[in-house]
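To close the chapter, one final illustration. This time we ask the reader to focus less on the individual chains and more on the assembly as a whole: which components sit near each other, and how the overall shape emerges from the parts.
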Amino acid sequence: MKNKKEEKNRENPVLKSVEDAGTIPKKKTYIEDIDRGIYDLFEENNTAYQVDSGLTPEIVKEISRQKNEPEWMLRHRLECLEIFEKTPMPTWGPSLHELDMTQLVMYVRPDAGLREDWNEVPEDIKNVFDRLGIPKAEREILAGVGAQYDSEVVYHSIKEELLEKGVIYTDMDTAMREHEDVVKSHFMKLVGPKTHKFVALHGAVWSGGSFVYVPAGVELEHPLQSYFRLNAPGAGQFEHTMIIVEKGASLHFIEGCSAPKYNVLNLHAGCVEIFVDDDAKMRFSTVENWSKNMLNLNTKQAIIGKNSRMEWISGTFGSHITMLYPMSILKGEGASTEFTGISMAAKGQHLDTGTKVVHAAPYTSSTVQSRSISKDGGIAVYRSSVNILPEAHHAKSSVSCDSLMLDDESRSDTLPVMDIRNDEVDIGHEAKIGRISDEVVFYMMSRGIDEITAKSLLVRGFVEPITKELPMEYAVEMNNLITMEMEGSIG
Amino acid sequence: MKYDFKRVNRIPVRTWKWLKVNDTELSGKTKNEGMQKESKAPNILTPDGFAVKYNPEEKRGGSITNYEELQGDTELVEFIKENKNIDRKIRLSAGASPDVPLVAPVFGKKDHALVEDTCITAEEESKGTVILQYTLSAPGEREDNSCEKASNALYAGNIYVHVKENASLKIVRIQDRDLSGDGISNMAVRVDKNASCEVLLVESGAQKAVSGCRMDLAGEDSQGTLNVLYLGDQDRVLDMNYKMNFLAPRTKGLMKIKGILKDRAKKTLRYTLDFRTGSKSAQGREEESVFLLSPQVKNVSVPLLLCSEDDVSGEHALSAGRPDEEKIFYMMSRGLSYEQARSLLVEGAFFELLETIPDETIQKEIFKSINKRLQSK
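The assembled structure is written out below.
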């Protein structure tokens, strides 16, 4: 924790603040960059095998051969490769001109097999996850853990009592062997390869990820967590997560990810497909802390049945460029979804995040709450769409997005779209950008709170709607990711 | 005369292509009778302080120095340059403050295009109101308060407005001319130091209406207000793009948009507040409320908020849906029918902006026209 600087005038800070309001240029609020500490530690020489850099049909075939996959999956990969090559780069959003596919390694297998006991995981890899707190979290609060290192899952476990209830939580390769029919009938059926160019890429070179199946009526009291660690420089991580929640079931799934910082580009183009049956509940929480050499082009989508609920909790702090828009399709009558997200864009970062909701049935509802902070030239973009289809009468949607900018080097854009095709709806949207009121700070100081504490409280309050949705340990982690030093006024 | 606009009303920051909001297109054929030397209706006065010149020899854009940047879609600008039949310059003299507005209607010939290039300048310290109306009949002379139908009559127009230091200008532009032709227009406004400009756009004409307005709050302490009323009914298509740029310190801007959609109307509305670096202490708000009166309407709204300056306050709000059922129920309990109660609520929302038009005859005409179209099945 950085030492705090002494305040210049402690005799009468309230009066000083008032006197200075009209005379002295306002100082900027300074917020420390996220403390990356443990995230930037990396391990060398634990790669067992990797394909050549670049993207060719031969490389795709080699990945499939390495994983000993069924023929249909290889065919699927090659079809996706063709779609990727034919699809142009997007004409909106951050520029991806730095991306050079010829320099990326699409598959890196660590020198470790899949284990169910941490003691059997190679020491260097185990140490990485120890530092990240994964085994500890597993012991204390989780019902199961999946840990992926580069392109493969190295550890997977689930509590015995859940197995007895019929819950399946395993890596995707195991799922393809042991539950091939289910995987085949769902794999990239929700997020199709033509969704966008980087979904097609994912379809061609995907590896790793988790498969979760929760039988009807089973409610998990504790969350499952998958953690994705990309250690190799100049590599890509393309994990595929598939979650099926049957009728009346409920699940909280937590996803974490990080990578050490290198001077070369890394690429993350994962995919999450979630199928929520009727009367079920699903919560998907993500705390993303990729390094600033990472392009994060992730795709997440959920389809929600009758009277079911889908909740997305999303914290985006890392990466050089992120394009991430979790999508909910409210297919069943009475289905609902809630998106709560926060992003913090600092120097060298362009975070383009948001959500998409499609109301495809009557009496569906959606709530979106998004917060962003941008500083030191960072660019934070909120991008969303809410589509109300003609059959979605009595749909309700409420969208709220607030942005806090800390200097005039940064940028914050809000780009929502509402497309409404029925009149029996109730739609509201609001957004704000700017500064925290000096009047509010003044009021708090008049109640005896010093200026630094007042500002710290206000900024923490700004992110509080998000942190309160996470399990406590992760909320603490999120607050620890943001260390704050306040001087002058918040702007 | 053919027209084929491929990418107009372009959104300031592009988004997903599948939403089809990044821009729009407009194409068709229309007659054009050539340059109109003068267009003046009987009993229209030019108040003291105003001067209206047709076919002026001054350079295009008048006194606006960033004319080229303000002018907007190149396709529209070039089309108007080649085909205009209304070319006029309206000027409010320095220090002038006429008590009555300048009503500057344009009367088109049935089945013939109106292609307009108008420049309006409010000189320093002046204060006044300009009402621009595009119609096939003079104010107060409409029969049955409905718009005449003309076939394939295009309206295309560029209007440039410059409000100089310490001036205050209100512009009302009413486009309810023609329910079966196309309309495409752009207004570009520059507001200088300590000046203010209030624009009211009434968009209720044209089969497909493409409407745009850009307001640059270029001078310190300048203020801008952009109010829009739109009505989409039957199979009409409305495509709108409004933008307010905050370029200087302590600028203030308000955008208020109210709309009604019924029958099978389709509407796409983009509205943007853009706080540029240097616009310290700027304040801006944009809000839209739209009544949806039919399950077959298509209502698309894109409220953008762009910001590269930290010391600002910007907000936007949007609401869409049917009129409040509880209020309708209350009015029905007082003896009104459902349709009457609903109309009252809808018209009441519109009237807040309509009553700002400083010409009662025009106010009533528009109100009656909207009322009649709301009642029609």
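The first strand of chain A starts at residue 30 and ends at 31. The interface with chain B takes residues 26, 28, 91-93, 383, 385, 390, 393, 403, 405-408, 410-435, 491 of chain A (CB under 8 Å). With these observations in hand, you are ready for the problems at the end of the chapter.
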